[in-house]
Amino acid sequence: MNGSRHESGPAEETVVTPPATGVWQLAWPTMALFALHSLVGVVDFMFVSSLGTEAIAGVGIALQIHFFSFAVLTAVTTGTMAIVSRECGAGNMEEAARATHCSVALSVVGGILIMAVIPWSEPIVAVLQVEPEVAALGGTCLAILLLFQIPFAIEITLAQALRAAGDVRTPLIVGSLTVLLNVVLDYALIFGELGAPELGAEGSAWATGFVFLFAATVMAALWQRDKLILPMLGWRASVTRALSWRLLRIGLPTAVEQAIFSGGLLIFMGIVSSFSTAAISAYLIGVRILSFCFVPGMGFSMAASTLVGQNLGAGLPKVAERLGWRSAINAVAVMGGLGLVIIVFARPLANVFGAVGQETIDLTVSFIWILGAAQPAMAVEFALGGGLRGAGDTRFPLVVVLTGLLVFRLGLAVVVAKPLFGTVEAVWCCLLADWSVKAVLLSWRFASGRWKRIEV
């Protein structure tokens, strides 16, 4: 997409292209970054797994619940992606910078609100009806993670703004540094090496928190020194009521979507845990493997959001549509291939990711097969969902997620649980139904072209 392109319409106008490049140029740095983060998650999981089953469950549940806090941030970051990409596509870099300032301010406010629940961390974990020892450890780890919510919010928001502007390499470089730091801190704080105190499973949470702080400090320093593609402007002129509402109006539906989805994940985890300890262990191991499957999806989602938003801003809706579909096709090809790989190597993966005991190993293999079969549908959801959000169309994805979650994931899970089939594998198959329905609905919406007429 570099250079000059145009679309022919009734007036035969020529429009200068936005700064973004092609699908792969935008997708691969994001893929690389999320792959590194997933790898760190595996290393962290292996460190913690050496401490026993309770440590695995406590840390794993704390991380799952902490993901819920991301829903609050999406109220800001989704609007950031849509507005910054649209303004950059139109050549309004100063307005894109103002939106970034306002987004960071709003994300800090969101971080403060999330930190208010720290005193209730253990009761929140205990709601999942885990053993008291797991609830105590998980509550402590969750409280530690929430202590660093403000730097987490700042780093996530700035990285999202940079990707929307077409700069995917700066988040990759900073993220790569944090990945290396995370591994070192994990090792040091969990086992008491390199002169650090031995904190056990809690050390994993402290390591993650310090990494949040480091990443936010680096990004903020680069921004303050005008080393980023988005210039540093005055806060007073940027943080206005009108711009704040413009961001939140776009992002609130996605925040509701993420909050309900995260809550649904916890309910689904509760249904799985009702079967056996082996079932929940297999599920948590599968989630770790799934984090690798998400890597290409996140890359193509970010690429689709940026390309659709910037081309709409540049007055090129047909190009935006073509690149949205191209993102989806590439995502299906890559994630479909990845799904085939994890199906073929399901049992070795179960062993590598720490499945212990024949029942746990067998259940993990079954879960991996289901995850592998779901990859093409997940790819469509990532890519086209990202494209719609990049266009500012956030309400329809909310309806889609609610339909898939409440009807096909949780609704079916309740029906096929113990009273009927009595197997956790039947419950896991509800995930496949959920992802398939969402892929069909999002494809229909993107094909309709209604997102081209949404004002942001």
Labels describing this entry:
about 450 residues; mainly alpha; 16 helices; about 80% helix; globular
Q: Topology, pairings included?
A:
Blueprint: H1 23-49, H2 53-89, H3 93-115, H4 121-126, H5 132-147, H6 149-164, H7 169-191, H8 201-224, H9 235-238, H10 241-273, H11 277-313, H12 317-344, H13 346-352, H14 358-390, H15 395-416, H16 424-448
Model description:
It is a single chain. The chain has one domain. The protein is 79% helix and 0% strand. It has 16 helices and no strands. It has 456 residues and is mainly α. 52% of the residues are buried. It is globular, with a radius of gyration of 22 Å.
Q: In a few lines, what is going on in this structure?
A:
The protein is built from 16 helices and no strands.
Mean pLDDT: 84
Overall radius of gyration: 22 Å
In total, the number of strands is 0
Quaternary organization: single chain
Number of helices: 16
Overall morphology: globular
